Amino acid sequence: MKYLQLLLVLPAVVCASDFVTGQAARMVIGQPNFTAADTGTPSSYQVGAVGGLAWANNTLFVVDGNRVQAAPVLNRVLIFENISNFVSSPTADITQGVRCPVCSGTLIYPSGGSAAPLKGADMVLGQPDFISSGTGQTASSFRTPTGVASDGNILAVADTDNNRVLIWKTIPASVGQAADIVLGQKDFTTVAPVITDNRSFRGPQGLWIQGTRLFVADTQNHRVMVWNNIPTSNFQPADYVLGQPNFNASPNLNIAVSTETPTAKSMLNPVSVTSDGTHLFVTDLGNQRVLIWNSIPTQTDVPADVEIGQKDMVTANENDSSSLCASNGTDSTTNQPTYPARCANTLSFPRYALSDGTRLFIADGGNDRILIYETIPGSNAARADIILGQQDEFSDVVTDSTDTFRPDANITRSSPDTIRTPLSLAWDGTNLYASDPYDRRVLVYTPGDIQIPVTAVANAFSRAVFAVGTVDLAGTITAKDTVTITIAGTNYTYTVQSGDTLVSIVNGLVALINANSGDPNVFAIANPGFNEVVLSAKVGGTAGNNISLAVSTSTSATETATASSSTLTRGNTAAEIAPGTLVT
């Protein structure tokens, strides 16, 4: 069969493989597609509000927890073994006939078979199974984990609200495996009152393993603690500290109201620490900067050499655009220069800094973007070369303003080229992984040859176009009313509960349709902005147009339900749709 291109594309722009400002993620982990931000029941292939990331020996570690109030916090660490089996080469062929072959949350429906995840986690820590999300203070439980580190042999997790770090001497091989060593507490079942010394933590969030050393960002003690050798016993003391003059010093600083003047030696709520083997990078969240040591310090209280995000070492302004950005005009009243809200030099509550040995990546959380520096900065206030998550250096757009069913209406939908408060990064030598907690996913970015401009029109990504349908809810809430969606003769009936809203009814219907292996014909997705259930055919092409759709409510119900049509529609093949058709 011959497949026709939808549109002619512009001639390729010849350049070396690299990231480009505004590029979209290539893959997504933890959601069924790039526009979903589902919560649902915890599983091996659907994540919650993820935080820390680490990559080592073809294994991706994902912390399913955070301290930014994104929900849900599932209090676990997921381990994806042989991640390259899912995150394939950028030049590899993409499987056809799968709803989203680049989404780990996708379900495959083999002919005559039941649903199965395309790629789920192989192991979970902190929980006895993939569906639990409880907390605890044992060797096999967490309470708000946030950070993770591994060198491929050892695994360490920042168990933040238990004020401790857990260490596994080898990479865990079984679900819920207990840790071998605890730091910050005398044993696995104690959470002692907080003190400031060379053994204790106050809300640690970041950690890193470099050679024999372990680094821990002891966030609320405003310091980084360092062990010269990986600890081998519980409650082992650190060897030296950065950010404070000694182990007993810890100014009681509130990040929201702090007036303390920063220095090259001080920190305010550091949330990550990493190294490329030569440099040391600390994300100094409260001081709105990233600190760089040109060589890894080996003793207490060593000052940083370089900072990013401020004009100097004694300034701590969020998005200090008047000092760091070029003027964008003149105020007509005061005749004074005006400045953009942000630019490629500024930071807003940075969360993570990571180097691949050449480039430096910074998760600029408050600006909802990732900054890329082509070389590691050697002077203060460096300007980023590339920005991911935004189309330019001045914008902070966190949503996609297009919607498949109501164009330019659903401005809360996630997309492949936006990221909301990135918290952590990981690099596997080819791909950059970024945690996106509010969209409940991990995005995978890959450098490549620029074939067409970012804003150019592209052809369809799939040879099949999947049929869709919607059910819109309206009216008022009355307990015990029922709303039924009938799909290809199968009824899904939701009974309204006291305290329900139209959105909770939508979520209830979606849960019914997707329960267990799900309806054999469709996926259901909630569109809460419009009190709408979106149905998408599991089979591609025109066959999806034959799936019948009907709705009904109980007698005298005060809720109304309206189907888009009597069948799903818009199913087609890429060879048959007209030039100019937008395929999403």
Separate helix tally:
2
Report the mean per-residue pLDDT as an integer.
88
Structural classification: mainly beta
Q: Largest sheet at a glance?
A: 5 strands, antiparallel
C-alpha Rg (nearest Å): 25 Å
- The CATH architecture of the domain at 137-316 and 342-423: 6 Propeller
Beta-strand content bin: 25-35%
The total of beta strands comes to 36
N- and C-termini, Cα separation? 23 Å
CATH T-level topology of the domain at 137-316 and 342-423: Neuraminidase
The geometry reads as globular
User: Percent helix among the residues?
Assistant: under 10%
Characterize the structure shown:
Among the domains are: 137-316 and 342-423, Neuraminidase, CATH 2.120.10; 464-573. It is mainly β and 584 residues long. Residues 1-15, 107-117, 400-412 and 575-582 have low confidence and may be disordered. The longest helix is centred in the C-terminal third of the chain and has 13 residues, at 502-514. The protein is globular, with a radius of gyration of 25 Å. The two termini are 23 Å apart. It has helices at 321-324, 502-514, and strands at residues 27-29, 53-56, 59-64, 76-80, 107-108, 116-117, 123-125, 145-150, 155-159, 164-168, 181-183, 206-210, 213-218, 223-227, 240-242, 270-275, 280-284, 289-293, 306-308, 329-330, 337-338, 352-355, 360-364, 369-373, 386-388, 425-427, 432-436, 441-445, 464-475, 482-487, 490-495, 522-527, 532-540, 549-553, 559-563, 572-573. The protein is built from two helices and 36 strands. Strands 29, 32, 33, 35 and 36 form a five-stranded antiparallel beta sheet that branches. Strands 1-28-27-26 form a four-stranded antiparallel beta sheet, with no helix packed on it. It has a four-stranded antiparallel beta sheet with strand order 2-3-4-7, with no helix packed on it. Strand 30 (482-487) and strand 31 (490-495) form a beta hairpin.
